Amino acid sequence: MADRGRASPTSHTYFSQRLRLHYLDWGNPNAPPLLLVHGNRDHCHNWDWVAQELQDDYHIIAPDFRGHGDSAWVYGAPYSQSDYIYDLAQIIHQQELAPVTIIAHSLGGSVALRYAGIYPEHIKKMVVIEGTGGPPAEFEQRPVHERMREFIENTRKASGRQPKRYPSLEAAYQRMHEENSHLREDQARHLTVHGSNQNEDGTYSWKFDNYTHVMAPFGLTREHTKELWGRIDKPVLLVSGSESWFNDPSREDPMPYFQNAEHVMIQDAGHWLHHDQLQAFMDITRKFLADD
Predict the structure, then answer these.
(1) Helical residues (DSSP H) of 64-200, grouped into ranges
(2) Nearest CA among 135, 134, 78 for reference residue 111
(3) Is the Cβ–Cβ distance between 59 and 28 less than 8 Å?
């Protein structure tokens, strides 16, 4: 991926709730700040292609959430939306990024939108790829004892689950490509190299913590989330892929809850549409960011 005429990103550390977290800085510090926020069980290098497209115009920061990429794992507590929001708040605070433009995907979009509702004055514009999901209403309506039992049982199962070991990097790549058939071979290999570690016995495992699979039993409700969306007074572009599972017709339309939002669907793209149709995504993103 390297472009000999342009700078490559540098790796840095910041701290959030005493956890050592990782982020990439793509240079160009005198340009306006742009934060790229990845999805669940992804990592900061998922944005490398987008960052290369925009690094001349922005100072790009791409963090790894706790339990993801090269950031520390959590011990003794679940992974919750509130903690992810704090991670985002910390990097914006510590790096003095506000007011900041944000591009975010999936879990990252969900977290970024909640952050923007808490601190709307810290936002310039947002591009959110399929980030208005979350636990279904049925989950929040379940009795407390059922939610706690499920959390306890799922956490217990996670404690006995070992990270999947692949005999070679090639085998891990094949699994990556199976997960998203839209990926070009070079994309899948790049994401595999940056998203896996080699174990002591020579096998390979994904970097994310398996405990990120366990949903915290309580947190910000759907109603709280809608309230936060309604506080965002800056322009928001919601983007989805025509072939994504996210476009379930039973899903509630989030548009009425935003003050200033528009929605664009990209054809022939799944949930990782910024990989599947990069140029189409960049075209609509550049236009949105350039519009006054």
Answers:
(1) 81-94, 107-118, 137-141, 144-159, 169-179, 185-195
(2) 134
(3) yes
Rounded CA-CA distance 282/285 in Å is: 5
Contacts 24+ apart (CB under 8 A), 150-153: 150/217, 151/78, 151/214, 151/215, 151/216, 151/217
If we measure between CA atoms, which residue out of 81, 74, 86, 67 comes closest to residue 219?
81
Range of the domain at 132: 10-162+219-290
| Domain CATH for 27 | 3.40.50.1820
Under 8 Å between Cβ of 13 and 90:
no
Distance CA 109, CA 264 (A): 15
Region class of 27: left (phi > 0), else alpha (psi between -120 and 50), else beta: left
d(CA 280, CA 10): 27
Residue found by looking up tokens 């949903």 in the block: 215
User: Structure pTM?
Assistant: 0.94
Residue-wise pLDDT for 21-54, tens only, equals: 999 999 999 999 999 999 999 999 999 999 999 9
Is 176 domain-assigned? no
